[in-house]
Amino acid sequence: MTVSAAVADAQPAATPTLRGESFHGDVPTITSVICFPDQPPRQDRGTFQASGAAIGPYPGTFRETGVVSVTFDTNGAVIGRELSATFSIDSPVGRVTGTERSTNFGIGCGPVDDHSANTLAFNTNPGGFVVTDTYDAHISTAPGQLNDNGLFQTAFSPSNFDESFSSTLASP
Fold first, then answer.
1. What is the mean pLDDT of residues 91-103?
2. For the segment 50-75, what is each residue's pLDDT rounded down to a tens digit?
3. Helix or strand or coil: residue 55?
4. For the chain, where are the E strands, in sequence order?
């Protein structure tokens, strides 16, 4: 009697997208901030850095730097918003680098009280992903490389940084 077993060809695991990835940093850094509340037309502008824990398909550490600005007309109405950032993830699973862009977010810019320096806070969209908040990423892992893109959401304050990703790719 002969017994044979079929052995499936071993397929390397697919490189995962950033769907479900999130960042958390406890003490982000405001590297510069300029707020001109009494000088229309004006532009509130700030630069930031954040680092901390990356959680999801690429667990490890992240680092992000960016620029956020809002331009107002002479009547104080918002006429432009721009957030651009770069990020990286160092993970045992692989290395991720990417860029982000948003044109629709809320911002707070100004002194905490009458005697302190200006501070900065912004939020792209609490509670959901929107089409104005996009990312592009390059992912390198042992099984292969992937260019990923999708949506992100960010909440930044002087004491907290949280960000999450949702890939728009149907599959890796």
1. 96
2. 999 999 999 999 999 999 998 888 88
3. strand
4. 22-25, 29-34, 42-55, 60-72, 78-90, 94-102, 106-111, 118-123, 133-141, 145-157, 160-167
Q: What is the CA radius of gyration of the chain?
A: 20
3-state secondary structure of 3: coil
* Rama region for 143: left / alpha / beta (φ>0; ψ in -120 to 50; rest): alpha
Query: Which residues face 102 on adjacent strands?
Result: 83, 133
Question: Can you name the residues that pair with 52 across neighbouring β-strands?
Answer: 62
Residue 134 C-alpha from the chain's centroid: 9
Report residue 127 as tokens. Answer: 């509670």
pTM, 2 dp: 0.85
- CA separation for the pair 69, 71 (Å, rounded): 7
Query: Tokens in use for 11?
Result: 């397929």
Find where tokens 């099984």 sit. 143
Tell me which residue of 145, 171, 155 sits closest to 25, measured CA to CA.
Answer: 155
CA 80 from centre of chain? 20
**Token pair 């959901």: residue:** 128
